[in-house]
Amino acid sequence: MTNIRPKSSIRAISPYKGGEAKVAGVRDVIKLSSNENPFGPSEKAEEAWRKSGHELHRYPPSDHKSLIKALAGQFDLEEEGIICGNGSDEVISLLCQAYVGEGDEVIHTEHGFSMYRISTLAAGGTPVEVKERGRLTDVDAILEACTERTKLVFIANPNNPTGTMIGGNEVGRLAAGLPPQCLLVLDGAYADYIENFDGGAGLVESRDNVVMTRTFSKLYGLGGLRVGWGYAPKQVVDVLMKIRPPFNLSRPQLETAEAALKDQDHITKCRNENARLRAWLAEALAEHGVMSDTSCANFILARFGSEAEANACDLELRKEGLIVRKVASYNLPNCLRITIGDEPSCRRVAHVIGRFKEGSAEDPTVKADVTP
Ligand SMILES: *Cc1c(COP(=O)(O)O)cnc(C)c1O
């Protein structure tokens, strides 16, 4: 018998669950559960990936200089403020490791991304959940929840899984109202879906308490590659660089991400197609009484009358090989998060949900009795 135990905050963690990719007994599934780009990455990125396997015995560059230069050029940023991570999850984790310890509090919102809580607990800190207002980040509620122990505030803008976002004035008011020891982290995983939106980069530059995180996993179609980055004041980057693992990105990761970044035609195409299909799907579902907030991202959060109805609809979708995301663990039990796929996928989702709603209207066991 041993007495080997992790630190107590680790025991409170339930491991992160990714979107499912399989349904037993169904062959041709369409995965709409992880907000992946249905069109995949740029062909130029795929080509860079194929060519990047040279010199596998050599360590990759650890300064990420070439990718950082490309990011700074593309988004008009200061190179010194950029740090690259193995997915933006790594940047989130580094922020928690660097700024959070025992007794420190980290704020996330009611329907916020689960990695904020996990990384906070991993660092030994205490996650503090703040209510949203109608599935929208509530700046006043966050400011009220701040104490002298609050070290980080995480908001995703646009948020996952709600798809909603708050405006620049609200984000600015939040940054300006935080206590002096607290850093605001703006998770911009979905910022790329909004044309001409800087994700908060301007605020990072104009203040000294704001960090932005970004990723290649969503619009850039590279979830399998694991590349993300952060933009932060120089003094924050200096801190994170002390604990960032050296060589945290392999040469294939670096070269593929850079090639993807340079094909902005592909990015524009994917962004436009997502916006078109998102509007179409939201309207198609609304015609069947399934409402959603206007989404700013690559998914919609479909609201059902009850948890039972959402689960029954999920089952129906699965039977047809359509895998969407249940979001009960995000305090949204009567909702399903549906990634915007390509056009045939969107049509199939609309068809199955429409059929389900027509059937369930006559079925008293799945009565829609609560309006969210
Ligand atoms: C998908 C997602 C990320 C991206 O994580 P990576 O580690 O970069 O793949 C970060 N934040 C939110 C809110 C997300 O939905």
TrEMBL record:
InterPro entries named among the record's database cross-references: Aminotransferase_I/II_large, HisP_aminotrans, HistidinolP_aminotransfase, PyrdxlP-dep_Trfase, PyrdxlP-dep_Trfase_major, PyrdxlP-dep_Trfase_small
Pathway: Amino-acid biosynthesis; L-histidine biosynthesis; L-histidine from 5-phospho-alpha-D-ribose 1-diphosphate: step 7/9
GO biological process terms held by the UniProt record: L-histidine biosynthetic process
Superkingdom of origin: Bacteria
Chain segments annotated as coiled-coil in the UniProt record: none
Aminotransferase class I/classII large domain: residues covered: 28-353
Entry EC number(s): 2.6.1.9
Keywords in alphabetical order: Amino-acid biosynthesis, Aminotransferase, Histidine biosynthesis, Pyridoxal phosphate, Transferase
UniProt region (Disordered), positions on chain: 34-55
Top EC group: transferase
Co-factor(s): pyridoxal 5'-phosphate
Chain positions found as N6-(pyridoxal phosphate)lysine: K218
Compositionally biased residues, Basic and acidic residues: 43-55
Catalytic activity reported: L-histidinol phosphate + 2-oxoglutarate = 3-(imidazol-4-yl)-2-oxopropyl phosphate + L-glutamate
GO molecular function: histidinol-phosphate transaminase activity; pyridoxal phosphate binding
Family: Belongs to the class-II pyridoxal-phosphate-dependent aminotransferase family. Histidinol-phosphate aminotransferase subfamily.
PANTHER family reported in the protein's UniProt record: HISTIDINOL-PHOSPHATE AMINOTRANSFERASE (PTHR43643:SF3), HISTIDINOL-PHOSPHATE AMINOTRANSFERASE 2 (PTHR43643)
Quaternary structure and interacting proteins, as annotated: Homodimer.
Protein name, as recorded: Histidinol-phosphate aminotransferase
Organism whose genome encodes this protein: Halocynthiibacter styelae
Taxonomic lineage: Bacteria, Pseudomonadati, Pseudomonadota, Alphaproteobacteria, Rhodobacterales
Gene transcribed to yield this protein: hisC
